[in-house]
Amino acid sequence: MHPQSITETLHIVFVISWMSAVFYLPRILVNIAEAGDEPAVRARLVLMGRRLYRFGHILFALTLLAGLTLWLHYGISGGWLHAKLLLVALTLVYFIVCGRMLKRADTGAALPSGKALRWFNEIPVLLVLVIVYLAAAKPF
Ligand code: HEM
Fold first, then answer.
1. Looking at ligand 1, which atom is closest to the CA of residue 77?
2. pLDDT of residue 69
3. Can you state the angle between helices 79-106 and 3-33, rounded to 10 degrees?
4. Can you give the pTM of this predicted structure?
5. Among 37, 61, 79, 138, which residue has the fewest nearby CB atoms (within 10 Å)?
């Protein structure tokens, strides 16, 4: 098996894992916002969210490591990669904003409504559609 293919395989597997965390953390925020006045449920959800947030950052580091290896070691690059990295950075900012909301929820501060958070949860869907298109089609 060619080392570059192993690196690309690892990159895509880490991408899938990281994106699962990016999609699921805002869903936990929706459940916290809709948990009403049940401190035990809220505490359990906050704990789940904090563990997912921490693990998500590890998965991002592994995605980045494999991606940088493909870019800098195997020399795969182009305008598509620069545009892709800008959208990846936006996705990381989105994940950090979710982490900040979780921290605020942990202090008992109010979250936006469940409905608003469900719309907020759609943002990474749009980002990942364009990121994967850029990586697969390399249009420029
Ligand atoms: C974290 C920084 C990232 C870097 C530096 C990076 C870099 C790269 C590079 C250089 C390739 C090789 C392209 C090729 O061999 O054709 C690649 C492939 C790919 N990347 Fe990333 N990437 C990153 C994050 C992501 C993220 C977050 C996603 C999805 C959400 C993603 C999705 C993909 C896909 C689907 C491929 C395979 C494309 C193909 O084989 O046609 N990458 N990436």
1. 10
2. 97
3. 30
4. 0.92
5. 37
